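thread: overnight batch results

M.L. [08:02]
morning all. the overnight job finished for the chain we discussed friday. pasting input first so we're all looking at the same thing
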Amino acid sequence: MKNMKIQLNKYLMEQQKIIEELKKLPPGQLIKRKSFYYHYITREEQIGITKNPELIRKLARKKYLLVRKAQLESNFSKPLCKFDYSTSKDIIASLPNAYKDLPESYFYHPDIEAWIAADPKKNSINPDHAEYDSSGNIQFRSLAERIIAEVLVEYSLPFHYDVVIKIDGKIVSPDFIIKNPFTGVTYIWEHFGAFDKDNYADSMNKKMNRYMKNGLTPFDNLISTYKYHIQDTRRICDLIEQIIL
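M.L. [08:03]
and the structure it wrote out:
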């Protein structure tokens, strides 16, 4: 019962965010004619908008939100075991062709592009230890972190690596700050893989306690991994699918 209440509360919060975002989006809907002409239809008019990608984006985002909202509302009347856990990609695949033929990024939260393009301050402690390159030209401090990043890329999840943020007035540098591109929800991911170092466990506990005292919750918006996760990347995939997606 407790787990169901927690999940329903999360859904209620998501539903409210969707309602607020829908108020900012245009009326009407998108249709496609002759396989490549996009039209915007309202009760009053029908106009071609093939050359108006911004309006197409807004209508795509609106359609996605309406389907997601209906999905959430359906779950409110079901037992937890019968909830619809369709992912964002599942929702897009279920849309009419006029929508699902669009690039996936057209369904993203409107703040995502700016967040991806941001250049947050990097952690400057021991920069020489960042020696593991990735295909994205990011240098990681450990092979394990590079592996996590590569899985995040496979799932098209944008992230900032090893950047400086303030929590409770103190400087903290999470391994990863991740955004769900469809919901805009932020996640912090810490990988703890150096228990052979002195005082490492104490430092880890202090860091996790600081996160939790400031509204971050394990298995909700706070993820932690350990050496055994890296030994089988399916475990990393499971965390992404169960928590972020």
